[in-house]
Amino acid sequence: MDKNQLKFKKEKIILTASIGQCVHVAGTQNFISIAEKLGYNCIFLGPANSISDVIKSIKKHQPDIIGLSYRLTPETVKPLLKSFFRKYQKLDHQAEQLYFAGTAKVIEIVKQFKQFDRYFIGDESRYEIISILKNENVHNKINHSSDIPSSLISRLEWKKPFPLIRAHFGLPSLERTLQGIKKIAEAKVLDVISIAPDQNTQENFFHPQEQKEELSGAGGVPLRNVDDFNKLDKARQYGNTPLLRIYAGTRDFIKLAKLYNKTINNAWAAIPIFWFNQMDRRGPLSLRRSIQQHLEAIRWHGKRSIPVEINDPHHWSLRNAPDAIAVADMYLCGIIAKKLGVKHFIAQYMFNTPPNISFEMDLAKILAKNELLKTLENDSFRIITQVRTGLASFPLNTNKAKGQLAASSLIQLLLKPNIIHVVSFSEASHAAFPEDIIESCQIVDQVVKKMSSSNVRLDNKLYNERKESLIKQAKWIVNLIPRLTRDHENIECPWLNPSILSRLVELGIFDAPHLKNNRFGKGMIKTKVIKGGYDSINEYNEPISEIERISEILLDLDDYNVELISENQNEKVST
To answer: Domain map of the chain by residue range?
Structure first.
């Protein structure tokens, strides 16, 4: 889409009114709330307006769009509209567009007048309203979905100030997955469908001889050839034409990236640093080799200006690591992305992880991550915030799970995110079906609607103190990285060196209790919920900072260029 088509004329005026004796205004108010967010100057005349009063207001305000509403007995709308058009046609100023809202039966009669550009019955999605109001071609009455941008960055701009909605979907059957994508697209409830491929696709797409029959459909949809990917792209071409994206796989990263871009126009890449390998048993590569190939894949996407998400930090929290490690990893991921040429870095913040973390301390952890990443931003490196509910936080009872989704989403929206990754409430009991995803998106959409009209402020001494503590620890950890070189090594950029990065794990600097007995990680760390947050504890079951814990590790390193760094050091990373 041309940039000029994305520009929005903020000076446009919308005049709305319920006519005759109709006092129903809830739908009109919803329409106005969206229009005002998009920059329109909205004039609402209220309920039960006479036609004469409406005409007088049109003369006075000269609106670009006029919206009339009537939800009473269908036949009684006829004389009202006859009177309206008899007077309206005599006006010197007439609006660019005429809208009418009413019940389905009322609309049937109103359509006989053939002078309205748009009809609303009350079940229109946010997408339809945004698409109509942002469409430059005001007389296009047929298909506004063609005006919705087809790339992530342009779609973000198009939908402002509302966040994009993303959901994860993939069933063990390709045919059912294709049908589901079409159904979700037609529901117009989200912007991005994140394809969940099965394990054979992620690991062995280019090695069919190594695919295991028992893994077919495990974890997602089986994709076995290029045509399967083309079918995914075709299935999304309905409704509001959501974007598609897919995970990077667990090997052959660049070959897969080329395939994704050619077939589904992958909206953004999701590539880890330390995970999806032999360490977590989700991939065939060793820790060091996977880090090397992950870095190469990130660089490949950066060169092509494809947005990148490094889906890494929350995996430490999923394994009960202290909050400071998750914050440090997010900061490190941002540094790596920037150094590898990524222009748009998608920071995914997984809330409620671990599930027993408190809302306050969870928010403090996310705010610490976000604040550190913001220090890296400049004209060539932009942070795109994405929030989501932690999978493990959902109760098995679906009604309670819906409550968890709504509650978590409300907290997430305090960050004013660019993207909301909607995790279906059903995930604790079964992989999401299209109906589950649609309902989950509708739940979150209602939270977005309420929060978009509120002014809740982030001002809490408790989580601000926690945030500052986590930032201090995270910076200290990340600034250790250049000192993890051995005496004989001459490494130009330790931030991008697989050997140095793997040492963070091998030495136990990045550690988690769930890595116990792991051949790559130490698993020696002990953590505990302290005042709602996750911290390390010593042998006396007392909380200790990561600076204290890691300093003990550094004392035992003889062949490294490590010096104990003062707790108050503020050395900056060169980016």
So the answer is: 3-147, 152-452, 461-554
